[in-house]
């Protein structure tokens, strides 16, 4: 099952490394690709999505712009304290439209997913939607 | 309201006054180091600059990097990918001005093809009798490189805020340009 909007299911963005009050991190999980979170300079950038309960995740789909390299880590405890690497993804540069990529997580179980953008194709990157296939 | 963060490289030949300017930026013009102490590595200063007429600000992470050739290679490893560049030369040294194009090449090699806004700063404007570089020549070269030109005197605390404000403004307008581009993107549906 694919949940394009995570927020009604109790998921939260518990941390984001940048903030522009017009483009809050909640935009990542509202299911709407027209709203977005934007980084405000320098790399790496990261955000952490926390789920209401431990969740088995087959894949995540990330819609973003100007992201070059993304690392995903997971945490399985309640307090987001210990993250272990899950996967990495290199994005192709796009012009005029969003990057979109389904990234397999092989049914891994997690309470938090941490997305680390280590580099971008521009000074600023945006993340429009993260949806989870469980 | 938004707080932007920019990695600002401070480069130029040895002894042109990069660290003195950096101190000046950091201390809001109260501290001029009278004794010369050569920077042999990389020093980091953070300076927050408010953008006038907005609630926005830019945190400049100023990377003051040694100018002496012997140390440059080691320092370059710490540069990362710059957001901004502040290129400094000594108005009383033609040689330090000539080196500027070489410094720009180095900075570009680290920018991965990205546009890096910047300023060219002719320092030591207090030593007018010993001036070797004419403002018009520096101005013209700066323009050809897409840099804004300033003359400062870290010693006399003259005009030291101007390059900082220019850098912050350049980054701020770049951000808004990019935001607009992102807002005009087509969603994947």
Number of DSSP-assigned strands of chain B: 6
Could you spell the SSE succession of chain A in H and E letters? EEEEEEEE
Beta strand % of chain A: over 45%
Number of helices of chain A: 0
- How many separate domains of chain B? 1
Query: What is the string of SSEs of chain B from the N terminus onward?
Result: EHEEHEHHEHEH
What is the number of strand segments of chain A? 8
Could you tell me how far the N terminus lies from the C terminus of chain B, measured between alpha carbons in angstroms?
A: 30 Å
List segments of chain A where confidence is low: pLDDT < 50 over at least 5 consecutive residues: none
User: Rg of chain B, please?
Assistant: 17 Å
Query: What is the molecular shape of chain B?
Result: globular
Level-2 CATH architecture of chain B: 3-Layer(aba) Sandwich
Q: Which oligomeric form is depicted?
A: heterodimer
By helix and strand content of chain A, what is the structural category?
mainly beta
**CA radius of gyration of chain A:** 13 Å
Helical percent range of chain A? under 10%
Helix content of chain B: 25-40%
Subunit structure (chain A): Component of the IFT complex B, at least composed of IFT20, IFT22, IFT25, IFT27, IFT46, IFT52, TRAF3IP1/IFT54, IFT57, IFT74, IFT80, IFT81, and IFT88. Interacts with IFT27. Interacts with IFT88.
Domain F5/8 type C (chain A): 17-125
Family (chain A): Belongs to the IFT25 family.
Subcellular location (chain A): Cell projection, Cilium
């Amino acid at each position: 099952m694919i949940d394009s909007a995570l927020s009604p299911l109790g998921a939260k963005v518990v941390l984001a490394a940048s903030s522009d009050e017009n483009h809050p991190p909640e935009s990542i999980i509202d299911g709407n690709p027209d709203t977005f979170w934007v980084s405000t300079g320098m790399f790496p950038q990261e955000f952490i999505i926390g789920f209401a309960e431990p969740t088995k995740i087959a894949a995540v789909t990330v819609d973003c712009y100007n992201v070059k390299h993304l690392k995903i880590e997971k945490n399985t405890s309640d307090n987001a304290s210990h993250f272990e690497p899950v996967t990495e993804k290199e994005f192709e540069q796009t012009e005029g439209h969003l990057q979109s990529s389904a990234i397999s997580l092989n049914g891994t179980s997690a309470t938090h997913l941490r997305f680390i953008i280590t580099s971008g194709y521009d000074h600023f990157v945006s993340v429009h939607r993260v949806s989870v296939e469980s | 309201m938004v707080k932007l963060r920019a990695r600002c490289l401070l480069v130029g030949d040895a002894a042109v006054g990069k660290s003195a300017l950096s101190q000046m930026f950091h201390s809001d013009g109260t501290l001029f180091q009278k004794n010369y102490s050569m920077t042999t590595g990389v020093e980091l200063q953070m300076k927050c600059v408010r953008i006038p007429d907005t609630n926005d600000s830019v945190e400049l992470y100023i990377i003051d990097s040694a100018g002496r050739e012997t140390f440059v290679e080691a320092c370059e490893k710490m540069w990362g990918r710059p957001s901004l560049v502040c290129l400094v030369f000594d108005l009383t040294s033609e040689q330090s001005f000539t080196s500027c194009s070489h410094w720009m090449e180095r900075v570009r090699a680290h920018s991965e093809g990205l546009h890096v806004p910047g300023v060219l700063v002719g320092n030591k404007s207090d030593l007018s009798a010993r001036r070797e570089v004419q403002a018009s020549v520096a101005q013209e070269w700066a323009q050809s490189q897409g840099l804004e030109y300033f003359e400062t005197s870290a010693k006399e605390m003259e005009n030291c805020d101007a390059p900082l404000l220019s850098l912050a403004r350049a980054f701020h307008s770049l951000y808004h340009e990019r935001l607009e581009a992102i807002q005009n993107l087509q969603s994947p549906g």
